[in-house]
Design a protein that fits this description.
- By secondary structure, the chain is α+β, with helices and mostly antiparallel strands.
- It is built from nine helices and eight strands.
- It has helices at 7-12, 16-25, 80-85, 106-115, 117-143, 146-156, 158-161, 166-173, 177-186; strands at residues 27-31, 36-38, 46-52, 54-61, 64-72, 76-77, 91-95, 99-105.
- The strands form two sheets. The protein has a four-stranded antiparallel beta sheet. Strands 2-7-4-5 form a four-stranded antiparallel beta sheet.
- Helix 8 (166-173) packs across helix 9 (177-186).
- The two termini are 20 Å apart.
Length: 187
């Protein structure tokens, strides 16, 4: 769940000229609780850096929402496949709280990549983080029971537990809300 690096700290290590250029390209976006940052079928046109708030990604399947991840402050959220391919997204991104994000568009990222070699390292770390998040999620689904995933979630991201609705957490863990309630009573 946790990103492998803190993008805000990593930003501070960049040359001041590049920092200024990045700031000039970022757009500050405010979202209310339950707003959709990205809907199914839309193209993910950038990466969102969460300054304040909590978001989830989910898939729609037969009228049912399946939560695939959560992100909070100082994390990146995006539909990685849609962003990288610029194809319509199967995922949705929704805020669970009032949220403030810095939006970094695909177009502006590529303009800066062409202009600054040093920026390539920064963006590579963002892409690596997106990829590692996806790999970690897939590995946990493939190799862990729902109880093990819940215990790992509690251990690695306890700050999220109180911020997400029980139904979304149960969906993320691949169980019913009732099963999660029983499991929480045992842990």
């Amino acid at each position: 769940m946790n990103d492998s690096f803190n993008i805000f700290k990593e930003y501070e290590t960049l040359n001041p000229c590049i920092q200024h250029k990045i700031l000039s390209k970022l757009q500050v976006l405010q979202f209310a609780k339950h707003d959709h940052i990205l809907k199914k079928g839309e193209i993910c046109k950038g990466i969102f850096l969460i300054e304040k708030g909590c978001c989830r990604t989910y898939l729609e399947n037969g009228g049912k929402e399946i939560t695939t991840n959560f992100r909070i402050e100082q994390n990146i959220i995006s539909s990685a496949y849609s962003y990288l391919t610029q194809m319509p997204s199967e995922e949705c991104i929704q805020t669970l709280e009032d949220t403030t994000c810095y939006f970094f568009s695909h177009k502006n990222i590529h303009l800066l990549l062409d202009e600054y070699v040093e920026f390539n390292i920064f963006v590579r770390k963002i892409y690596e983080t997106l990829l590692m998040n996806e790999i970690n999620l897939l590995n946990s689904i493939r190799s862990m029971s729902a109880l093990e995933r819940y215990e790992q979630f509690m251990e690695k991201t306890p700050q999220i537990l109180q911020r997400v609705p029980l139904g979304h957490l149960a969906s993320f863990l691949g169980m019913s809300q009732e099963t999660l309630s029983r499991m929480r009573g045992k842990v």
